[in-house]
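Hi R.,

Here's the chain you asked about this morning:
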Amino acid sequence: MKIPKSIEIPLTVSSLPIGKIGFFCGSILLGNWLASDVFNLPGGGLGLLITGAGVWWLMKPVTPEFKSPSTIQGWVNRCKEVLIQFKDFDDPAQSETLCQKRNESIKQILNASGPQKVAVISSDTTTCSNELKLKLEGYIKTKNSMIDLSWQAPLSLEDESWVWPDQFHSNDILIYYLTLPLKAADLLWLKKVPKDQPSWIFASCSNHVIWDEESKALKAQLPARWNDKLLRLDEDNEVVLSESNNLQTLLNKSNQNKQHTCLRLLERLHSSWQTELEMLRREKFRNIQKRNQWIVAGTVFASPVPTTDLLAVTVVNGLMITEMAQIWQCSIKPEVLQIVAKQLVGAALAQGVVEWSGQALFSVAKFHGSSWIAAGTLQALSAAYLTRVVGRSMADWMALNNGVTELNLESLKLDAPKLVKNAANAERVDWAGFLKQSAEWISQNASEGLSSRSISSQVGN
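And here is the predicted structure, written out as tokens:
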């Protein structure tokens, strides 16, 4: 398949930072005027300085970022935006029911009432003794009597996924009880505690004399976030803070803690819906990917001039990414998305995607002989596989840049090789599926007489 090894990204008017260019030109005029007429500086030194600042600001890349809401209403609005997007993918017969169920999830978070919740968790099946429970409960409620303190069932020691249980996310404060020395299971669970959830460790040591030594060993093994969040029993069996921290202050901020929990839960709900929505998008995308890869294969197979192969791939990929933009509701202009596609194609060619697929097809042909593949179809199947990889990497790019309105060319150049590499590795896992589809495509084209020109030249000979 004769395709150039590198593709340059054209500079289009739509990709130029018009606002920055205006500032750049203005800085030159203003700088020269201030230097010569106001300050009477020789040589326009100040103008040169301002011009340099304008050049730096003009050339500085704009990195698009997801702006996380900072208020409850902001997250509610984000969640409702996702609800609208679900309507394009839900089964019409179930759409209304699913929408009501999702709205109910938002209401449950917003309507949560009662005192702030403090949960004590542990991986120890014996948990705390009644004496320790009373000591800790007394310490907590001394700071604030209006607290719902609960003792949760022990964490599983056989859970190989080590996924933090959902029921703990609704608590305002977590206290992890552990007995020293630190066990591997405790360390694994502590690493899974969400960083945005206020949490402390209640460490129990049987010998107060060796606490200093044990605490040093504990801190050396724990992530840094826990260094100043340790509770323990002193010589009088009273709960104390081993380090100065803000637990005492935090316990008295009930309303603030509950609002923070509401924010966390809304963010988690939004994230889970985005994950579900992404799965629905990928399912719809796979149908587009499958259809377009065989359109590419047919176009390349029928092309009499090898140099038109790239044109066929680019044009059909252009049609594919237009459909993909609708799936991901991408607001970037189609001509800019074409730039992204070309960059991904270039990265795929540089990584030898076509060469790898060609060699793999040759190896398959040796096993299947004349009944499976003919030399004339090799180029077409390689083009189909290239389209498959580029399509998947484009889907990954759209998922990562969902909501972005401007293209960062420098970031794209850096990200494209990694996106293509991940997509190629993922598609190689499903190589058997691609071969099955290839056999079906060859069989269909053979029945239509499209492959007659290459039947006489077999790859396995």
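One quick note: The chain has four domains: 18-59, 72-110, 116-260, 269-454.

Cheers,
M.
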